[in-house]
Write a structure and sequence with these properties.
19 helices; 2 domains; 446 residues; single chain; disordered C terminus; mainly alpha
Length: 446
């Protein structure tokens, strides 16, 4: 493939990715089910209250209590779009543009560190994956978070390549902005510092110990400085010097039920109901939303620790299982759930294999899961072939593996399963790299 053909294909992929999203926005303009998720109303309420001067709150009426559960960047983004364009719907158009720009940056990364063919395939897979298409036209944090993350990854690999300070500073500024977009990123700085240490170890860049420590300090100091105003706000309002009150809520109502269900051989839904009733007996909460506040954080964490100590092995099994599901869960299901067709979401493998299944949905799910499983195999192959790679590829793969481990581990504690979109392009990029090793038929791992 010559460069001119490559550019034409890339341009076609990017334009088509944008047109499909704009088409979805126009087609469903009178039916907003596609644009809204369970969390969408909260983000829109926060933005609207900012616009009306009620502060950072999702309350619909006075006294408009300040909110501690969400962080400010995405509601602020929605508010700014509403202020500039007069409609929240314009945010979906901007998100569509951002997702296409992210695909372009992904292409640049893939082209430089893997191959042009892998880069093109990855851009196409990312733009037209069911998760990506669905989430990018919703009022959710994922698209903005993804765009900031991909930009920070690109700027970081540029810094590792040429050690220019502007890329280091850009990355250092973007990381706390990520944390203010979604709290799942509040511990992400060590990932980048470990990546820097790996590049030094593999002698990709030359840094003395003093220089390494200086860069680490600057990144941590920048991170802390940008987060501090929000932390002070939460301390002044709620008495907690923390980014958000989301962690205890997510841990007790999302992570604990899975381990509890495994330990007691019951369904996740049954476990959730039992735990919801149990926490009610330990608190005086009458409104379930009160569990999202700092005031209930201590009791939620206390009960979570209790169950962790009671079922430590099941928590470990649950975490490993959910880390695997993070990569293998289909995105098509989200499309069906958007349009109240959850009754079709059950997938019977026997019916699919024997072609006795009458609905189309399970076959689509099976195809997507097989594709994701192939990428997962590629991910494993990339890991197995790690030490056969050159120094530059090693340092980049190490960085990508750290990111994948980080987000898959924290996805249950601070985010939902649908948050996979933020690392789906990295997952597919590393997976395609691993699958490319099979072209030679004989795989030399060592």
């Amino acid at each position: 493939m010559n460069i001119r053909s490559e550019k034409k294909i890339l341009f076609a992929i990017l334009v088509l990715g944008l047109l499909v999203r704009l088409g979805l926005i126009m087609f469903f303009d009178d039916d907003h089910r596609l644009f809204h998720d369970g969390d969408s109303a909260e983000y829109l309420a926060l933005a609207e209250n900012l616009r009306l001067g009620h502060g950072f709150t999702w309350d619909k009426s006075a006294p408009f209590q300040p909110n501690s559960f969400r962080t400010p960047i995405y509601p602020g983004f929605l508010f700014l779009v509403r202020f500039l364009f007069g409609s929240y719907q314009a945010a979906l158009v901007i998100q569509s543009v951002l997702i296409v720009l992210s695909a372009y940056f992904l292409y640049l990364i893939g082209r430089e560190y893997f191959s042009r063919k892998i880069a093109l395939w990855n851009a196409g897979i990312f733009l037209f994956a069911p998760f990506s298409l669905n989430v990018s036209v919703k009022f959710l944090t994922q698209t903005l978070f993804l765009s900031l993350l991909i930009l920070s990854i690109w700027s970081w690999v540029q810094f590792l390549k040429n050690q220019r300070n502007k890329y280091f500073l850009l990355t250092s500024i973007l990381l706390p902005v990520l944390a203010l977009t979604r709290p799942i990123a509040q511990y992400i700085v060590p990932v980048f510092i470990l990546s820097l240490a790996c590049s030094v170890y593999f002698k990709r860049i030359n840094l003395s110990l003093k220089q390494f420590l200086k860069l680490g300090f600057i990144m941590c100091a920048t991170f802390a400085a940008i987060l501090t105003p929000w932390l002070i706000r939460n301390y002044n309002l709620f008495g907690h010097f923390k980014l958000s009150s989301i962690t205890p809520y997510q841990l007790y109502f999302y992570d604990v039920p899975d381990a509890y269900a495994l330990a007691n051989d019951i369904s996740y839904e049954e476990a959730g109901g039992i735990l919801k009733a149990e926490i009610g007996s330990h608190s005086s909460v009458s409104n379930f939303q009160d569990y999202m506040k700092f005031a209930q954080g201590d009791i939620l964490m206390s009960r979570s620790r209790y169950y962790f100590s009671a079922f430590p092995a099941y928590f470990l099994v649950s975490r490993v299982k959910n880390m695997a599901k993070f990569f293998l869960r289909d995105g098509i299901r989200y499309w069906y759930n958007d349009f109240s067709r959850s009754s079709r979401s059950d997938v019977n493998i026997y019916k699919i294999i024997t072609f006795k299944e009458k609905n189309t949905f399970p076959y689509l799910v099976a195809i997507e899961r097989l594709f994701l499983a192939a990428l997962f195999v590629g991910l494993i192959l990339s890991a197995l072939c790690f030490f056969k790679e050159d120094i530059i590829t090693k340092s980049i793969l190490f960085f990508f593996f750290l990111l994948l481990l980080y987000f898959s581990f924290f996805s249950g504690i601070m985010a939902s399963a649908g948050f996979r979109i933020i690392v789906e392009p990295i997952f597919s990029l590393v997976g395609l790299n691993g699958l490319s090793k099979l072209k030679g038929k004989k795989l030399n791992l060592w």
